[in-house]
UniProtKB/TrEMBL annotation:
GO terms for molecular function: D-ribulose-phosphate 3-epimerase activity; metal ion binding. HAMAP family: RPE (MF_02227). This is Ribulose-phosphate 3-epimerase. The keyword Transport does not apply.
């Protein structure tokens, strides 16, 4: 029998104190984070600018074992695959909208795999979920954005949950990631829809007790996975 997806909580460090990124990251891992979600923005694909592979390489030296999920909000995703792999990235999540056609997307997926990373493929809120379907068999994780990418602290878009539900109905074992506005007030919707990779930035970073938030989010997802198993 196939195993169900596992709950994974990945804090986004976008709104953390970036002057102390290594210690902030370690703190989140000590609080129970399953992975770190690192937002790379090029000021072109999205109207904001963050960091690139040199910073990831430095962070990797300070944080040797955590899973780094690179959320590549960049116009040229293929360009940064090898540099990010060399820097120590584990999952390379790029956006379908950044590439012109299906063959470019497939090519990018192939290169990420050849570089030894897990493949994540994301869609922005205005992109139909059906556009992911031709690639799902070849990827490890589908990212459904629940805000317009670019900034932390935005309002969760509940209407994106129908995309998560559609993906979960078709692909029982796929890792489905949600990102944007996810906190304790919205985790129930994400969990019920079938998301199991949960990105949360301000919901965790600004919480008085990040450890508790991470635990409650994981519990919500695991409970929803168990309910879904019983209903099958
Ligand atoms: O990709 C992102 C923005 O484009 C961030 O990961 C996301 O917004 C996380 O922050 P928050 O949980 O505060 O919305």
């Amino acid at each position: 029998m196939s195993s169900p997806p596992k709950a994974q909580i990945g804090p986004s460090i976008l709104n953390a104190d970036l002057s102390s990124l290594a210690s902030e990251s370690q703190k989140l891992l000590n609080c129970g984070a399953d992975y770190l979600h690192l937002d790379v923005m090029d000021g072109h694909f999205v109207p904001n600018l963050t960091f690139g592979h040199p910073m990831v390489a430095s962070l990797r030296k300070a944080v040797p074992v955590a899973l780094f999920d690179m959320h590549m909000m960049v116009s040229e995703p293929k360009k940064w695959i090898q540099p990010m792999a060399d820097a120590g990235a584990n999952q390379y999540t790029f956006h379908l909208e950044a590439l012109a056609g299906d063959s470019d997307v497939k090519d990018c997926i192939r290169h990420v795999k050849e570089a030894g990373m897990r493949v994540g493929l994301g869609i922005k809120p205005n992109t139909a979920v059906e556009r992911l379907y031709p690639f799902v068999e070849d990827i490890d994780c589908a990212l459904v954005m629940t805000v317009e990418p670019g900034f932390g602290g935005q309002k969760f878009m509940s209407d994106m949950m129908s995309k998560v539900e559609a993906l979960r109905q078709r692909y029982r074992q796929l890792d489905i990631e949600v990102d944007g506005g996810v906190g304790l007030n919205t985790i129930g919707q994400c969990a019920d829809a079938g998301a199991n990779w949960i990105v949360s930035g301000t919901g965790i970073i600004n919480a008085p007790n990040p450890q508790l938030v991470i635990r409650q989010m994981r519990d919500a997802v695991n409970e929803a996975i168990q309910r879904a198993q019983l209903e099958r």
